[in-house]
Amino acid sequence: MKIAIPMNEMGMDTEVCVSFGRAPYFLFYDTQSKEAVFSQNAAAAAHGGAGIKAAQAIIDQNAEALLTVRCGENSAEVFQAAGIKVYKTTKVTAKENIEAFEKGELAVMTQFHAGFHGKA
Q1: pLDDT tens digit string along 18-32?
Q2: In terms of C-beta density within 10 A (0-12 exposed, 13-18 middle, 19 or more buried), how is residue 23 classed?
Q3: What is the pTM of this model?
Q4: 2-102 — its CATH code?
Q5: How far apart are CA 97 and CA 111, in angstroms?
Q6: Is the dihedral of CA 46, 49, 55, 56 positive or negative?
Q7: How far is residue 25's CA from residue 119's CA, in Å, rounded to a whole number?
């Protein structure tokens, strides 16, 4: 399974970003091959709609799940339409969250914020 995680920096031992749409990077991790790929989030600098643009980037990379601290309603609707599950992170680093996800310890996110609508 390919999962996506918003990141502050590149590195498995770095913190998950608290902002999904404006995260500087995304980590794409394949749970079968254990391959980790980092990419810049082009949506981070958007004046508006960063969450929707970031969600589309996740879909374009064929991710099947998102691990994040929080997520906006608009992004959540995009993920729901694409069949991508969103999980609430509980650990600090990407590595810790991936391990928790693989053990089934992360809950599916059920509460989404209204968004920040252009506010960085």
Answers
A1: 999 999 999 999 999
A2: buried
A3: 0.91
A4: 3.30.420.130
A5: 19
A6: negative
A7: 18
